[in-house]
């Protein structure tokens, strides 16, 4: 009987803890400048909003190694303690609120472990830094960001290297206007809009300018207007061939604080990391990207 009571108590505490905060942010930390900047963005955003808890999460490498790659004989518990101290120091350095959690864990696959943690802990949004470096570092970080965004376990905010949180006054939702009632992750979108309360711009890019007057487009637009009732969306049709180029120009011209997209076919996210756009990204590193899912 005693064991059963303890189990029930722990279960109740777990449920209570997950619902204590209205929103829960998770930031994977590898102690790089990129990760620290993502953490600062998440912490500043959490401070600006109400009832948000940030978790800084570090996954230890399976094998500890020295600077020359030689395996080190260090106890796992000791490594976890060192990482926890480093996370705590980082939280202090970034001025994190007192409710910020720091967790160090051992694992093998970063994305798989993160996805499992997100589901177990009821994480509402994951923040991942986007490196501004070139070469293999850029490709690896880009790959991790895309994979996490495509896991569909939670919305993923991809933070460019020089991005600073300055509020969420305006956001743009980039949509392909196809079967919006089925393809739009309306619950995730509304949850983000409710907590951030920004002006909402809806952008559609199509090389056929006449499509804006078609019955198909007008129906999709009417459906989306109904779905976003109460959020006062402003629709923009952009007759352009290159989606990524158009989205980038639109976000800059309208001074939006975040671009929201649904990476169903991955073309938008993968396009951001293609070599052709590397140089262009360097000029627009202040606009975060939020990937949401059906």
TrEMBL record:
Q: Which CDD domains match?
A: USP-like (cd00293)
Tell me which Pfam families the record gives.
Answer: Usp (PF00582)
Q: Which domain of life is it from?
A: Bacteria
| Domain spans labelled UspA | 24-160
Q: Which family does it belong to?
A: Belongs to the universal stress protein A family.
- What is the protein name given in its UniProt record? Usp family protein
- Lineage in the entry? Bacteria, Pseudomonadati, Bacteroidota, Chitinophagia, Chitinophagales
């Amino acid at each position: 009987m005693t064991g059963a009571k303890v189990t029930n108590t722990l279960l109740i505490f777990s449920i209570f803890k997950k619902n204590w905060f209205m929103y829960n942010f998770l930031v994977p930390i590898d102690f790089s400048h990129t990760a620290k900047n993502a953490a600062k963005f998440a912490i500043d955003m959490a401070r600006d909003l109400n009832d948000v808890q940030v978790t800084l999460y570090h996954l230890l490498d399976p094998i500890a190694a020295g600077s020359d790659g030689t395996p080190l004989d260090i106890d796992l518990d000791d490594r976890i303690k060192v990482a926890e101290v480093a996370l705590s120091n980082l939280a202090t350095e970034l001025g994190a609120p007192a409710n910020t959690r720091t967790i160090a864990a051992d694992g093998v696959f970063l994305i798989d472990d993160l996805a499992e943690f997100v589901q177990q802990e009821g994480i509402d949004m994951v923040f991942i830094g986007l490196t501004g470096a070139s070469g293999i570092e850029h490709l690896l970080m880009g790959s991790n960001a895309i994979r996490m965004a495509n896991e569909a376990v939670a919305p993923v905010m991809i933070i460019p290297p020089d991005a600073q949180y300055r509020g969420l006054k305006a956001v743009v939702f980039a949509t392909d206007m196809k079967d919006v009632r089925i393809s739009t992750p309306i619950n995730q979108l509304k949850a983000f809009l409710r907590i951030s309360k920004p002006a909402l711009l809806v952008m559609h890019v199509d090389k056929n300018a006449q499509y804006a007057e078609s019955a198909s487009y007008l129906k999709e637009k009417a459906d989306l207007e109904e779905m976003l009732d109460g959020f006062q969306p402003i629709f923009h049709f952009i007759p352009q061939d290159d989606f990524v180029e158009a989205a980038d120009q639109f976000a800059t011209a309208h001074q939006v604080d975040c671009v929201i997209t649904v990476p169903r076919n991955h073309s938008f996210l993968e396009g951001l990391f293609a070599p052709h756009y590397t140089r262009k990204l360097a000029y627009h590193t202040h606009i975060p990207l939020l990937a949401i899912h059906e």
